[in-house]
Write a structure and sequence with these properties.
The complex is a heterodimer of chains A (267) and B (300).
Chain A lengths: L1 H31 L15 H5 L3 H34 L5 H9 L6 H14 L8 H26 L2 H9 L4 H30 L4 H4 L7 H9 L5 H25 L1 H6 L4
Helix pairs in contact in A: 1-11, 3-4, 3-6, 3-8, 6-8, 7-8, 8-11
Chain B lengths: L1 H6 L12 H29 L11 H8 L2 H33 L4 H10 L1 H17 L4 H9 L12 H25 L3 H9 L4 H12 L1 H17 L2 H7 L6 H10 L4 H36 L5
The chains are: A mainly alpha (267), B mainly alpha (300).
Chain lengths: 267, 300
């Protein structure tokens, strides 16, 4: 009986892990196969879908996405850092209420935020704002609460004794912020910025309302194609963009991001 | 501990010279959020109550939502889909979460990476994978046709089944994480004790692990439900015209029918569904906290 339960347990574990990995394997296989789907035909490998990526059809939306995500990461990084500093470090009056305000967009589904923004822009006659500027604004609204929360957590977790010691030793406020606080919370800020970049780069539910023909992001371009065909070049686009995201995470990790936060930084 | 450390912050002597600075630091964030979140949300809510021509207050859009048949059906489809996703995420995630909470070998790291890696791949890639697998000339139908099990392709895509499969895959890592945290909080000695006293594996799971991990099960279901209800890309691609949910119907209202008040009403319906579910979660959590503090109050 116990044996049977164990066997069932391992089978269910294995099945779920297969379920998780199956679509990823299928997409990688499709990106290398000459036909449009993974079938039981004898497999030959081809790299031509990846070669097709070097056309403006895919490079333009990719570069647009990178541009938007970079601006969003920079803006929400700076704003989130300042906001968390004011609320957590300075504890200005009403800081709890202010923090809830700063985090309130998190409780609204993205698609609802997207509708609200597109209706708002249309109502006040700013349709010309659609495309890149609207995408940046909407993605900042989406990313800012996450960044604020991450920076706030690392500000709340860092050892205030260090700050106090610096003060006793005669450091002024700006000096302490520059030499003590900022280096201590750097991992939190960097992971917030990375996260902002990724959620902007991958975003669909907000972007879908705000793009314009010729001014679109990569995920939106991909899903617009997907509705009509399963062209294997899309598999190549997806695999390449995942590789790009992994590279970004790796780079930020090198600068001193997440694992530094796990091992040092917080208590 | 942390709050104590912060409370001991020394009063800064030079605070007065910089008193304006925290406010100045906060204001850009508040300005961005008011301009691109609070104001648009307010406008959308107002629009849902406004008559289109005369701009007078009205409930007609809400009335239409409840009476046109299609919208309520979409609302129910969204709820049903999210419920199915919540259940399947929790059922499928449980064995993985249990393994991650209890395993000590190096396989733990492998399973952990496998369970969470899809999260980095983005929703489009995974949905595309399921499209290849489930469509009429896809992987599964191809296999079954070759084996002669079926003579015509099974309808696996553009329906509830496909959307639930795709969303379960998208949400699963979050379910696994919340179940894992909860199972990690159960003292493994309880399981060992029960086993020593002669309980079978099944009895240990049924009478110890499952009841003690109920908070994790609830939070996994809540996360899965809210993520599924607000998802757009997966229902759009895997459900398509065959299975419309609120998210995809809102998109149609905005971009095809250009009916903004009605889109606002649908968005409000989705928002209220989510807030309702979150409210249930908050209530459950605060009840559990108060019960836990009562039952452990004597010892502390």
């Amino acid at each position: 009986m116990n044996r049977l339960i164990s066997i069932l347990y391992w089978i269910s574990l294995g099945t779920v892990l297969c379920f998780i990995t199956l679509p990823l394997i299928v997409v990688v296989a499709a990106s290398l196969s000459p036909t449009s789907a993974v079938t039981l035909q004898p497999w030959e490998w081809t790299g031509r879908w990846y070669a097709d990526l070097w056309s403006s059809r895919w490079l333009d939306p990719f570069l647009a996405s990178v541009k938007i995500a970079t601006v969003v990461a920079a803006i929400s990084g700076v704003l989130g850092l300042f906001a968390a500093y004011a609320v957590v470090y300075e504890r200005i009056p009403g800081s709890d209420a202010l923090m809830s305000c700063l985090l309130s967009p998190l409780s609204v589904p993205q698609i609802v935020k997207g509708v609200a923004i597109v209706l708002f822009l249309s109502m006040i006659g700013l349709q010309g704002f659609l495309g890149t500027p609207a995408l940046i604004a909407a993605h900042v609204v989406l990313a800012l609460p996450f960044v604020t929360r991450m920076v706030a957590t690392s500000l709340a977790n860092f050892d205030a004794n260090l700050d106090r010691a610096a003060q006793i030793l005669g450091a002024g406020k700006l000096q302490r912020i520059r030499l003590v606080v900022l280096p201590m919370i750097k991992p939190g800020v960097l992971s917030g910025v990375t996260f902002a970049f990724i959620i902007s780069f991958n975003n669909i539910p907000l972007s879908v309302f705000l793009v314009r023909p010729g001014d679109s992001t990569l995920p939106i371009t991909v899903i617009n194609y997907l509705e009509y065909s399963l062209d294997p070049v899309l598999a190549a686009v997806n695999v390449a963009s995942m590789a790009f995201i992994l590279t970004v995470i790796f780079l930020f990790e090198k600068i001193g991001g997440f694992s530094a936060q796990l091992h040092g930084g917080s208590k | 501990m942390n709050s104590l450390a912060l409370d001991l912050h020394p009063p800064a002597r030079r605070r007065r010279t910089l008193a304006w600075f925290p406010l100045a630091a906060l204001s850009p964030s508040l300005m961005v959020l008011s301009a691109f979140f609070a104001l648009p949300m307010g406008m959308m809510i107002g629009m849902s109550f406004t008559q289109t021509e005369t701009f007078s207050p009205t409930l007609e859009h809400y009335q239409r939502f409840f009476t046109d048949g299609l919208s309520i059906a979409g609302f129910c489809r969204t709820a049903l889909m999210s419920l199915l996703v919540a259940v399947s995420v929790t059922v499928l995630g449980y064995p993985v979460a249990y393994f991650l909470a209890r395993a000590t070998t190096r396989w733990r790291a492998v399973v952990f990476a496998l369970a969470l890696a899809p999260e980095l791949a983005g929703v489009v890639l995974r949905t595309y994978g399921w499209l290849i697998i489930l469509e009429d000339r896809g992987f599964i139908n191809d296999l079954l046709l070759h084996l002669g099990v079926i003579s015509s392709p099974l309808p696996l895509s553009k329906n509830l089944f496909a959307v639930v499969v795709g969303l379960t895959h998208v949400v699963l890592p979050f379910g696994i994480l919340s179940l894992m945290t909860s199972i990690q909080g159960i003292d493994p000695n309880l399981e060992r004790a029960a086993q020593m006293l002669g309980a079978s594996r099944l009895a240990v799971i049924r009478t110890i692990v499952l009841p003690l991990s109920v908070p994790g099960i609830v939070s996994s279901m809540l996360i899965a439900f809210t993520m599924a209800a607000s998802a757009y890309a997966t229902p759009a691609l895997l459900g398509g015209a065959g299975f419309k949910v609120l998210a995809t119907m809102i998109y149609e209202q905005v971009l095809f029918y250009i009916d903004w008040p009605f889109a606002s009403v649908m968005a409000m319906a989705l928002l209220l569904m989510m807030l309702g579910i979150s409210f249930v979660g908050v209530r459950y959590e605060s009840r559990r906290r108060s019960r836990a503090s009562v039952s452990s109050g004597g010892e502390r």
